[in-house]
Amino acid sequence: MKKYSKDLFKILEKKELTIAIAESMTGGFIAASLVLNPGASKILKLSTVVYTEEAKYQVLGVSQDLMLRYTLLSGEVAEAMINGLKKLIKADIYLSITGNAGPTFLKNTDKLGAFIAVSSQDKNLISFKKLNKNCRQKNIDIVVKETFKILKSFVLNF
């Protein structure tokens, strides 16, 4: 992951862009990878781990009705997390990740996967990464790697 993090960091630094992050299923791995780079405070404006429904509601203002209607494994929740971040702090890029790494399923779902949302002032992207592995750590690693790839592409086209 270090290479993916370093590549993204260099691009953000060169373009003088900042990022705010709300992680759920990745538990802070994205932000932790970014802060390993010297000068991270110029880039990372905010990072929060909102692992539970309660945290998503209390910290980011994600509607409990929305989480009930669409489940935590949804693009709608990922987008609402981004909107919550935008109310907390100004940044150039916003990232949210929500999903289920397994091996058990979230209530009202029968799949494993993650929704990765990236947003700027005028551009939004929501991506779904389906997971098939029954290994929680491998699934988290897959989503972290995929997130860095998505972020790199998004930032290069910023």
Keywords:
158 residues, 5-stranded mixed sheet, globular
What can you see in these coordinates?
Helices cover 45% and strands 22% of the residues. It has 158 residues and is α/β, with parallel strands linked by helices. It has a single domain, classed as Alpha-Beta Complex (Maf protein), CATH 3.90.950.20. The chain starts with a helix and ends with a helix. 41% of the residues are buried. The mean pLDDT is 94.
Compact overview of the structure:
The protein is of the alpha/beta class and 158 residues long.
Task: Please state the CA-atom Rg, rounded to the nearest Å.
Answer: 15 Å
The dominant shape is globular
At the first level of CATH, the class is: Alpha Beta
- Major sheet: size, sense and barrel closure? 5 strands, mixed
Distance between the termini: 23 Å
Task: Domain count, please report it.
Answer: 1
Order of helices and strands: HEHEHHHEEEH
Instruction: Report the sheet-strand fraction.
Output: 15-25%
